[in-house]
C-alpha cells in the first residue's frame, strides 16, 4: 500500500518537478518602457531626443539610458511629456512650386502655392482629402482658363488667417508692386486683386499676418492685416504696413524696427506672426544676434528683442532667417540656423522681453540644416521644420539623379515638442522621406538657394493638431510641390492624444 501511495504522490507532483528541471519554458516577458509602443518598433525615420545646449550642442537620444544619465538629465516622460508613436511621410501634388507656403482652414482643406511665372502667375492648389489629391483653384483671370488675376509673381505667398478662416494670396511683382487677393470660401471664389505698393524699391520677401485689433486701434474688419517687406538695404531694414479694412487699402509703409536702431544690420526677415492678444512679431537679426521685433499697435511702432548673443546667426544663405510663431497662450517661439549649420530654438513667455536658453533641436545624426520654419499650437506645443542632411552627396561621390545607393541628400524634418517649457523638453523628430528618396541632392542645399525651396519653406497645423510642412522634391529636377506630415503622432491642439493614422506616401505619390 505504501508503494501505491508513493506512486500516486509522484504522479501528482511530477508536472511541478518537470517545470523546475527543464520541462516547459516560462512565457517570455513583454518588453516594457515609455518607448515601447503598441503600434510596433520605432521607425528608422523617427527619433526621440532631448535638445542640445550652448555648453553641449548635440542631440541626446532619449531612448539611450546611458546617454541620458551622462547628460545629467532626470527624465519626466509623463503628462505633456509622454512619448507618442510617430511616423512621417509626404504626398506629391503634381504641381511645381517655389518658396512654398501653405495654409489650412477649419474645414480641413489644405492650400499650397503653385508657381507658374510670367503670364499665368501663381495659382493656389487645394486638397480636401488630407493631401491625397490636389486641384487648381486659381484665382483665374479673364483671359483664359490658366492665367491668374495677377499675371506674375516673383515671390508667391499664401496665408490662412486663423481668426477669420480667410485665405489670403499675397504676390510680389518685379520687386516693385504687390497684390492681395482673398477667398472666404476655401478658394471657390476670389476677390479682385487689391494693390499694395510701397515707397521703397525693391519690394521683396513679403510676408503677411493678422491679429485682433489691439487696444487703441479702431479697425473696420474683424482683424488687422500687417505685412512687412525687405527694402534690399540692410541699413534701411524691413518696412511694414497695415490694413484696417480687410486688405482693401493700406497705410503708408513704416520702419519695422525702432527708429533708434537705425541703421539696421539686416533687412530680411522670416514670416510675420500675429497673436490672439493683438501683438505681432517678425523674426530678424539685430546687430547683436537672432532677434524678434514686436508691435503692439498694429504694425506702426516696433521694439527690438535680441534672443541671444551666445548662438549667432549662420553666415550663409539663411543668415537672415529667424522664424517666429505665437501659441494660443501668447508665448512666442523662434528658430534660426547658427554657425554650426544646426537649427536652434528659444521661447519667450512675456511677449519677447526675455527668452529661454537656446536649444539645438535637430535630430541625432543630422550634420547640416537649412530653411528653418516654425508653427505653434496650444500652450507650449510647437513644431520646428527644416531640411537636413546626414550624408553629403558630393562627399559620397553621388551627385547625380541616378542611383542613390549611398543614401545621401536632403530630407524634410519636423521636430515636435508637446511641452517646450519643460526643463528638458522631449523632442519627437521625423523625416518625411526615406534616405534613398532625397528631396534634393545639391551638395550644399542648406546654405544656398536650391530648387523649389527658394528662400524658405513653411509649416502649419490643422485644427486637430497635425503638422503639415510645405516642401519641394527637386532630386529629379522637377521641383514638384510635396507636403509632409505625421502619419500619426501627438496632437498639438486640444488634448494630447494619438492622431488618427494617415496612409503611407512617399516616392510612389510623385506625379512629375
Textual characterization of the structure:
- With 512 residues, the protein is mainly β.
- It has one domain: Neuraminidase.
- It is 6% helix and 31% strand.
- The strands form 7 sheets. It has a 6-stranded antiparallel beta sheet. Strands 3-30-29-28 form a 4-stranded antiparallel beta sheet, with no helix packed on it. A 4-stranded antiparallel beta sheet has the order 4-5-6-7, with no helix packed on it.
- A hairpin with a 7-residue loop joins strand 18 and strand 19.
Structure summary:
With 512 residues, the protein is mainly beta. The protein contains three helices and 30 strands. The protein has one domain: Neuraminidase (6 Propeller).
**CA-based shape:** globular
- Reported CATH architecture: 6 Propeller
- Helix content, binned percent: under 10%
Rounded mean pLDDT is 90
The value of Rg in angstroms is 26 Å
**Total beta-strand segments:** 30
Compute the number of helices. Answer: 3
Output the CATH topology. Answer: Neuraminidase
Q: Distance N terminus to C terminus?
A: 90 Å
Tally of individual domains: 1
- Our estimate of the beta-strand percent is 25-35%
Main sheet properties: 6 strands, antiparallel
Low-confidence stretches: 1-23
List keywords for this structure.
512 residues, mainly beta, Neuraminidase, six-stranded antiparallel sheet, 31% strand, disordered N terminus
